[in-house]
Amino acid sequence: MFANNVKGGGSMKKWYDEEYEFTVEVTGFLRGDHTEHYCRNGEEIGDKYTCTYGCPVNQDGCGICSKTMMMLYPLMEAVRSGGDLMNLGGDGKYTKEIVCPDGCVIFRLTATPLGNENFHKGAFWKDPDAW
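^ that's the sequence the OP posted. Answer follows.
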């Protein structure tokens, strides 16, 4: 079934069932035991963000730090392309820890295969009316 609802109350015309779901969890801090005066997003250990293709959001519909998203996107694309995060320093095919660009927050990225066909191999990007 196509995912039409977006967390936070909005809706989209999502027409493709993505191949992976991503979870990003705050696992620690590099500077002490809090993020006040370090992290503008106010991360706390245990905070979780999820997404399939869009930017990760938490249970309240708030998005992950844009600087951190710049680091996550290439890793997410590597997974979507059939890559193994162990080849990029991960501790498993679908898991890798990263530190935010400000050097404050430690995140754990986890990809979960959903069993759907790959966007490019399935030619979902082609206009069906042009076939």
